[in-house]
Amino acid sequence: MATVMAATAAERAVLEEEFRWLLHDEVHAVLKQLQDILKEASLRFTLPGSGTEGPAKQENFILGSCGTDQVKGVLTLQGDALSQADVNLKMPRNNQLLHFAFREDKQWKLQQIQDARNHVSQAIYLLTSRDQSYQFKTGAEVLKRMFAPALPSDLLVNVYINLNKLCLTVYQLHALQPNSTKNFRPAGGAVLHSPGAMFEWGSQRLEVSHVHKVECVIPWLNDALVYFTVSLQLCQQLKDKISVFSSYWSYRPF
User: Fold this and answer.
1) Which residues of 46-69 are buried (b: 16+ CB within 10 A; e: fewer)?
2) 138 and 26 in contact (C-beta within 8 Å)?
3) In Å, how far are 10, 133, 141, 240 from 17, measured between CA atoms?
4) Rounded distance, CA 211 to CA 213, Å?
5) Kind of pairing, strands 81-90 and 97-102?
6) Looking at the predicted structure, is the pLDDT value of residue 158 above 70?
7) How many Å from the N-terminal Cα to the C-terminal Cα in the chain?
8) Residue 83 pLDDT more than 50?
9) Is pLDDT at 3 greater than 70 in this prediction?
10) Given this model, what pLDDT does residue 247 score?
């Protein structure tokens, strides 16, 4: 019995020493890696006020789809906002060609890009606040009037980011009559809707009849996502190592 207890105590001493090394050495090495990776990711976001000189450069993206030519367009991205748009829509019923663009005094803010840049900045700040001299002690530490000419009343347009792609979706709508026998079910706040989805616009109830979507890849956003993925993998690996010692948290100070 005494031999077993001595062996158990020895094993715990070894694990305790490994945990000390993990907290005092490897954690800082991983955090330094994360800091370097996220700094590279932050350079991909050339947003106004992010330390770059002058306004963000303009990038033109040609939107298209290999399956249809119903919608074609060119969007100009400047930082976290679309400053210009030039969109052509071929109506499926009569092949009428509609053309519309942003008004000169309007921009379309892409909040997803701004949010991503803010999260990267916050992560870098948290990492730099825990430099090599810091000693970790516990594992737990570790819109319709936007366009000119105005869109027809039976069209809605949405522009958004999906992974590394800039997407433009055009919805063709038809009004549901007040005496309609259809059960009205509001679609909710999804980014992309399918035919049959229903909306309430003011006092009018509308249903989506056709959906046209075009997209293109934003190269620098693709690079940023790669850095995010590597960062998350490093964080998960470190978390897994910390979890190995979770049985000690309840009674040890480290």
Assistant:
1) bbeebeeeeebeeeebebeeeeee
2) no
3) 11, 19, 18, 17
4) 7
5) antiparallel
6) yes
7) 28
8) yes
9) no
10) 59
> Of 53-57, 79-83, 110-114, which gets the smallest average pLDDT?
53-57
Q: Report the alpha-carbon angle 56-58-59, nearest 5.
A: 125
Token pair belonging to 58: 């303009």
CA atoms of 164 and 167, how far apart (whole Å): 10
With cut-offs at 50, 70 and 90, classify the pLDDT of residue 152: confident
* Residue 37 phi, psi (nearest 5): -65, -45
Please tell me the distance from the alpha carbon of residue 176 to that of residue 184, in angstroms, as a whole number: 9
- β-bridge partners, 186: 198
Residue 158 CB neighbour total at 10 angstroms: 15
**Whole-number Å distance between alpha carbons of 153 and 31:** 53
How far is CA 175 from its chain centroid? 33
Alpha-carbon 90 to chain mean position? 30
Q: Characterize the bridge pairing of strands 165-175 and 204-217.
A: antiparallel
User: Percent of the chain scored above 90 by pLDDT?
Assistant: 4
Nearest to 206 by CA among 154, 150, 249: 154
Strand ranges inside 203-253, DSSP E? 204-217
What is the Cβ-side half-sphere exposure of residue 46, based on CA atoms within 13 angstroms?
A: 11
> Two tokens at 129?
């606040």
Chain centre distance of CA 110: 10
Q: In whole numbers, what is the pLDDT of the chain averaged over residues?
A: 77
